[in-house]
Structures are given as structure tokens and as C-alpha cells.
Write a structure and sequence with these properties.
The chain is mainly beta and about 450 residues long. It has a single domain, classed as Beta Barrel (Maltoporin, Chain A), CATH 2.40.170. Helices cover about 5% and strands about 65% of the residues. The chain is built from two helices and 20 strands. It is globular and about 65 Å long.
Length: about 450
């Protein structure tokens, strides 16, 4: 059978991206404790290509590694989590190869209370075409690398200054218009109202240069805003209010808009937490990938699709809610969202997205857990009007055989209803895995 093009066939760019990601972890970090999950999984799909008219069954054997590193030393602070898989398509419907995901942040204190150096890296698997299904032939590795110093200047006990200089490089295997170099500087004046409340004035300037796009697409972004950060016993909050401007070269018209962001993290009880994020500001695909370190999954976070991997800035209106409960036997997670993207140029179509992710797990016995999860993704592209809705539901049973050995059986159902002819699909998947966890 002729193999189909897949996002894992271009091994040299993939390895380059992984090399950049690993470079984000300084050699000193090897002293940090590493938690890892090493295992082998077998996946059986009745429609591996997510096709409406030509479903093909396939078995995929996947050795995989998950890892997490956390260190909080006097000189080095490090937080990283990642996943690496090798996919072996038994029936050769797609090319075998590696794929990975990484979110890492390292902070090196060069001079205490004066000078720090930041290194961050964000590796993910994204679609080449956002309008078609996220099948193995429509996947590419993307990487965003950030580094630079932070200088602290203290002028009074409660007032201090801060200067951040950053270089950011974005890279995609297929969508080369995503590739860019960014040079930024931020100047901040902070004042402590109390030990738990801070206000600040912030000016951020970022110069963005795309490598494979016409020079008139390059721009400089200016953000001027005030920030309030407060922390109560069970509630953390942050507010940003200000103004943003995009300045283009040549005859292209500049763009501007008010900036508003707010976030709340509320510890409702010792076992439950609620968080809320709202924003109205400029953003783009590369900035969207710079996220706090979490338990990353290949393919991105559940229930919150990434914007198209292209050059170009959009005005984003976003609302994201999260709720978590962790009990002795019952645990739950709910993450609904709404996002509207309005592009300031014609690099992609405006869109409205809404949906969410939910999961419930229950401990049947001390070593046996059952979990049910579902996600919904509704995306509407506005010029021309095109829409699709994708639903995923699954149930899993996980058993801990010993302190370190685990087994898992999972069944999934995926459906997509699209206004684009030929883009509907249905897929049933069964996954069996065995893992060693440290």
C-alpha cells in the first residue's frame, strides 16, 4: 500500500525542533528530580485518516515517554513537562516517525536581586490546515523558543523597576509563514501597596520579522498598560488595562485598540478550585503557544483549539473558565471556553470558537480507577461562512498493579460534522497501554 504523507515524515526538521527544545534545559537542571512515565501502547482505529469516504483501519504501536522536572534552587528555577512518542503504523497507512510536545521554563539567577536570565521552549503538534481533520497527514511540529535577561532596579523599599529583554523564534515544519524572529523589550515600574498587593505601569515593545512573508507584513507592537495584582487567602487576581498599537512599515495602515485582561484563581475548598480568564487584546499564533507549564499532551490542550499556524495578528476576545475537584474517590474537571478572532490583515479568516472539555473519574478500588471524558469544539469561519463541530467521548479503565506499574484500557469515539463537503468523519479507537511511572 502506498504510504500517505504524514506530519512525522520530515525527520530532519522534527529533530531540529526537538534539539531546540532540549537546549532550553540548562545542564544544571540534570540535578533536578525527574518524574517520568515510560510505556508502550497499541492503538486500533477503524478510520485512521479521519476520512468521510475512504475509512482505513490501522494498528499503531507507540513507545512513549512522559516526563516532568521541577527545581526551585537559589540559582536555578526550572519547570518542564513533555511527551515523546514513536508511531509505528503496522499496515503502513502513514509513515512511521517521532512526535513530541514540551513546555519548559528555566530561570537562572546570575546576580541575586539584580540580574536573571530566562529560557523557555514550547514544542507542540499543530494542524497544517485548520479547516480539515487533524489526521496524521495534516500534522506538523511547531516550536516557539524564548530567551533573554531581566534587570531589577530598586529605588525605594516599596518601589522598584524592571527591564525585560527577549528574543523569540517561532518555527513550523510546513507552514513557513509562521517562522519569525522577534525582539522585545519591556520596562516596568512596580509599587507594593502591601505584601499581597502590587500595582505597576508597563511599556512593552516587540519588533516582529517574518522570514517567508513580504516585508510589509512585519510590524512593531506597542503595549502600554497598568496592572494590579492582589492575593487574598483563597483568591488570586490580576487586572490589565491599557492601550495597544501595531505599527507597520511602508504605506500599510497602523492598527490600535484598547487592552483589557483579567484573571482569577479561587481556591473554593481544600479540594476544589475555580479559575477564570478574560481578555481583549492583540495576539497571534506564536504568542498563543506561550503558555504556563502544565501536563502537556501531544496535539494540544483538550477543548481549546489553536488558531491557524500563519503569520498575522488578530484581535482576540476570550473567555475561559476552569473548575477542578479532587476527592478521595471522585475527581472532576470542567473547562468551557469562548474565543473570537478578528484578523487585522487577510492572512486567515475571522472565526468564532466555543466548546469545552469535561472529565470525571472514580476510584472503584484502591488500585482501580474508571474515567469518562468528553470534548466539544465548534468553529465558525466567517469569510466565507464555513463551520464544523467536532465531538470526542471516551471511557478508560486504569489499574495499578504495583507501586510503579500501571495498565490502561481506553475506548474513544470521535465525530465531525462540517459545512465543507467531504470533511465529515466518524472514528472508533481502542487503546491498550502498559506504563512504568516514577
Amino acid at each position: 500500500m502506498q504510504k500517505t504523507r504524514t506530519g512525522v515524515q520530515h525527520k530532519r526538521p522534527r529533530r531540529a525542533a526537538l534539539t531546540v527544545a532540549l537546549a532550553a534545559l540548562p545542564g544544571m537542571a540534570l540535578a533536578a528530580p525527574i518524574n517520568y512515565d515510560l510505556g508502550l501502547a497499541a492503538l486500533r482505529s477503524d478510520n485512521i485518516g479521519l476520512s468521510e469516504t475512504d475509512p482505513q483501519s490501522e494498528t499503531v504501536v507507540m513507545p512513549q515517554l512522559r516526563f516532568g522536572i521541577e527545581q526551585a534552587g537559589a540559582r536555578l528555577k526550572l519547570n518542564a513537562t513533555g511527551q515523546v512518542q514513536y508511531l509505528d503504523y503496522v499496515d503502513d497507512t502513514f509513515d512511521d516517525g517521532f512526535r513530541g510536545a514540551l513546555s519548559s521554563q528555566a530561570l537562572w539567577t546570575m546576580i541575586p536581586d539584580r540580574l536573571e536570565w530566562t529560557i523557555e521552549d514550547y514544542l507542540s503538534l499543530q494542524p497544517v490546515d485548520s479547516l480539515t481533520s487533524f489526521n496524521p497527514g495534516n500534522q506538523q511540529q511547531t516550536n516557539v523558543f524564548v530567551t533573554g535577561p531581566t534587570l531589577y532596579v530598586r529605588s525605594a523599599d516599596a518601589t522598584h523597576g524592571q527591564v525585560d529583554a527577549r528574543y523569540t523564534r517561532s518555527y513550523a515544519e510546513e507552514s513557513q509563514t509562521f517562522n519569525s524572529d522577534r525582539y522585545g523589550i519591556a520596562m516596568r515600574l512596580l509599587h507594593d501597596l502591601s505584601p499581597t498587593r502590587t500595582v505597576s505601569a508597563n511599556l512593552e515593545v516587540v519588533d516582529v520579522n517574518y522570514q517567508e512573508v513580504a516585508p510589509e507584513a512585519n510590524f512593531t507592537r506597542y503595549d502600554l498598560y497598568g496592572r494590579y495584582v492582589g492575593q487574598l487567602r483563597d483568591l488570586e487576581m490580576r487586572f490589565d488595562v491599557g492601550y495597544s498599537k501595531l505599527k507597520y512599515g511602508g504605506v500599510r495602515k497602523d492598527e490600535s485598540l484598547p487592552l483589557a485582561r483579567a484573571s482569577f484563581n479561587w481556591q473554593l475548598t481544600p479540594r476544589s478550585a475555580l479559575n477564570l480568564d478574560m481578555n481583549y487584546d492583540f495576539s497571534d499564533a506564536a504568542e498563543n503557544m506561550i503558555l504556563p507549564v502544565t501536563n502537556v499532551d501531544i496535539g494540544g490542550p483538550n477543548g481549546n483549539p489553536a488558531p491557524p499556524i500563519v503569520a498575522g495578528v488578530y484581535k482576540e476576545t476570550g473567555l475561559r473558565l476552569g473548575y477542578e475537584f479532587t476527592g478521595e474517590r471522585l475527581s472532576m474537571e470542567f473547562r468551557p471556553y469562548y474565543v473570537r478572532l478578528n484578523y487585522v490583515e487577510l492572512s486567515a479568516e475571522d472565526e468564532k470558537d466555543w466548546g469545552g472539555y469535561a472529565s470525571v473519574s472514580y476510584r472503584l478500588r484502591p488500585r482501580l480507577v474508571v474515567q469518562a471524558a468528553a470534548s466539544l469544539e465548534d468553529r465558525k469561519f466567517e469569510a466565507p461562512v464555513r463551520r464544523y463541530r467536532e465531538k470526542t467521548a471516551g471511557i478508560a479503565l486504569e489499574n495499578r498493579f504495583t507501586a510503579h506499574w500501571f495498565g490502561r484500557l481506553e475506548l474513544q469515539r470521535r465525530e465531525r460534522n462540517s459545512a465543507i463537503i467531504g470533511q465529515d468523519y466518524k472514528e472508533n479507537v481502542a487503546i491498550v497501554s502498559f506504563n512504568y511511572r516514577r
